[in-house]
Amino acid sequence: MFYNQPLAHRFGTALASDIENGRWTRIEIAVAWVRRSGMQYLEDPFKKFLGRGGSAQVAVGVDIENTSFEGLRDLLSLRAAGDIQTYIHHNEADTTFHPKVYLLRNEIDARLIVASNNLTGAGLFVNKEAGLRLDAPITDPLIRDARTALATWRDPETGLAKPLDATLLDDLVRLGYVFPEHELQEHRRASKVRSTAKPSTAAQALFKALRYAAPPVPRGLIPTQQVPGTVLLMRVRRASETVRRTQVQIPIRVVRTRFFAEIDALVSAHDGRSHPLIQASARGGLNTVKIEVPEIEPMADPVLRLERTATAIFYQAFDAMSILGTPIRQALLNGFEMSPPTSFRSVGDLEKATWWRFI
């Protein structure tokens, strides 16, 4: 599987599901950075995994002032839940520890993910990130090579890795290797002020501003797949291919999720126009919601990406065979193949059905 974030995938959702799904007994991770913003999404899945007797080893870098005290503290606190060990990898020479490798395995199979995602909120959900997942037998040469690399990055004998404990964490803060998150935010704000102190002509925006949001944080060991995210992918069907080519129907079971709570219209991310949700009844009961999506009129097979904010839902519409539509369609199809499935359809006939998946 290829992860295309945030358009068609959100790596944090997939990773949390992998950690807690019960298939894997050993997890090995190496990342450049970790923060509380990322660990808050993984804390409950890790507790569930460790509580079942799973074991985990994590290697983290502390370069370029991106790993935070709170992120390392979160990893260290997981030791109370079970067998997990964190290692800090750092080279005092002018080099950066920059891998993002995730290996989940049992006695027979393994899942290797090499990606650009760090264990931060932005890296797991919001940033433009990419990754490639390989499922293979534990004996596969690529899995063997990944295990060797991960073990090397954690090896204290190299002099570049140290197991994290309370004493080392205090030393990392005291000696300026890591900082509390409020200090990192102040450093970043100061850096932005310096970078924008330019002539007004240089401050002109050259690119579009398109913001993405992270999902709500699940609490209380709730299975990830039961918590609607803030992004919904859909393959929609028109009311008519001839008369009403811009009207689509959203199944009522989708509208009744928390994703649509207190929402009565969708806003186009293309032009900012708002389109009301219209309830439709059949045989005396509400069975669907209709909406006009003008952008789909020329499209052969429309797909939507809907993103929920605090007060609105913004949509983007693409043809399923276009550059931006293809990964959305493929993510929906991949969801049907997962166990348990994460994609759903309105009727049995796949070609005639509306498809949807929360990510």
Instruction: Tell me the count of domains.
Output: 2
Q: Rounded to an integer, what's the Rg over CA atoms? A: 23 Å
Uncertain runs with pLDDT below 50, 5 residues or more? none
Secondary-structure element order, N to C: EHEHEHEEEHEHEHHEEHEEEEEEHEE
**Number of alpha- plus pi-helical segments:** 9
Distance between the termini: 15 Å
Q: What does the main sheet amount to?
A: 8 strands, mixed
In CATH, the architecture of the largest domain is 2-Layer Sandwich
How many strands?
18
Ordered list of secondary-structure elements with their pairings:
Elements: E1 2-5, H1 11-20, E2 26-31, H2 36-51, E3 55-61, H3 69-77, E4 83-89, E5 101-105, E6 109-115, H4 121-126, E7 129-137, H5 141-154, E8 161-163, H6 166-174, H7 181-195, E9 231-235, E10 247-251, H8 252-255, E11 265-268, E12 274-276, E13 278-282, E14 285-292, E15 302-308, E16 313-319, H9 325-337, E17 343-345, E18 355-358
Parallel strand pairs: 2-3, 3-4, 11-16
Antiparallel strand pairs: 1-7, 2-5, 4-8, 5-6, 6-7, 9-15, 9-18, 10-14, 11-12, 13-14, 15-16, 17-18
Helix pairs in contact: 1-2, 2-3, 3-6
